[in-house]
Here is the input.
Amino acid sequence: MSTAPGRAPSTRPSPRGRGGLSLALVLFALPAFAQEVVEVPAEDPGDGYTPDEAQAEESLRFTGYVDIGFAKAMGDGSSFHPQDTRAPLDYGADAFAPAVNSRGEVASTDTSGRFTNGFLPRSVGIGSNASFLINTASADVRFQPRGLPIFLFARMQLMPRFSTTGDATRVELQQAFGRISPFKNHELAIFLGRFDSVFGIEYLENEANLRVNITPSLIARYTTGQGLGAKAFYRFQIPAIWSAVSINVAATNNGTRIEALAPIDANLSGALAGSGRLGYELNLQYLQIKAGLSGLYGARNDQKSNATNQRAAGADFRLNAYGISIAAELLWLWDDEGEGARKFVGQSGSRELVTQFTVWGGGWARLAYTLPWKWSTVSGITLYGRYDRREAQFAGFPRLVTDRMTFGAHVDLFEVVALKAEYLFNRELSGAAVVDNDVFTSSVVFTW
Here is the structure.
């Protein structure tokens, strides 16, 4: 799914055991009330921000958004049990579960001095305190020479943060690439630079002003990271059956993981990682279906050996009809153990381990319904529910199974303001101590 910059998407896709019955009732009830025909944009060629034809006529354009949040996490804001003495501590808990914003940052990663091995998300540092946050201030610049098949794009983002050591504000060059479309009559695009992932579909909603809900899924850490390298997108239309087939491939330093898990801007292993997605789409007047298969293979970029590899496979599906949107994604992942890595680090150990890691199965499914009501100020109201599940294991640790139920609402005002609120019910099913790490979070996104 692609969305023109500066606009929210036209359709709105995306916990504990007691929520399952509610979601089932929603699944059966929504089709009876759906009335609106959904307009679904064409498949995104992989940059997450593709200009439409009108914008392509402009030579230079500046856009952006500001995401202001308010969040409150339960417990101490982390997934770490106060009596868990295992080391590394992050191998036996899902530190990514108490997310508070679209960046996947969590309320806290405070371990009270216990050893971790760096398998951690970024934190906003609020712990269990309710707090306002400026999640992201994002500014984009794009340039397209008139009459030339070249497009340049850069996105700079500011994240004001505070930690126990003082100011922790970050400035990031989120994307910076050039795109060449060499053939006028063929949908072929070649990218060089730093760009969004090509694996699966969740990367299409990386930015808060494009995302229906607020928080990423439990598997987003493996599939939605930006990459530095080269990629190519090609789509072949089949008008006779209202269909299209696409292929999206990339060769990058780091593969598809987020930067908190693997560096992007330098190749530490000396070998590239290849990723790609083969997609099919059916575009009828009242029904749109999109499905794809994704793969990843190459060296892990969190270590220095070109013989220590990562592998991943995925499948995704989307359906849009009469105001209803269903989306789902599955993932399997395997990481080799690094050369000379140890299985355990004692009290004095400080060296990071390159441990064998497996995602035995992970995924998410989201159901959303856009109400058939609009006013002069309200341009859309969407209700959604999402179920996430992740089953993963570090060598030497028990298999960790967690899941999450997310319920929320999204309201668009004047086409430039999005109001969102959601509640995350996190559960530790096996392999980790049960902790209170549910989250309420909300967001107001102003797009310019």
Observations:
- The longest strand covers residues 378-394.
- The chain has one domain: 19-447.
- The CA atoms of residues 101 and 215 lie 5 Å apart.
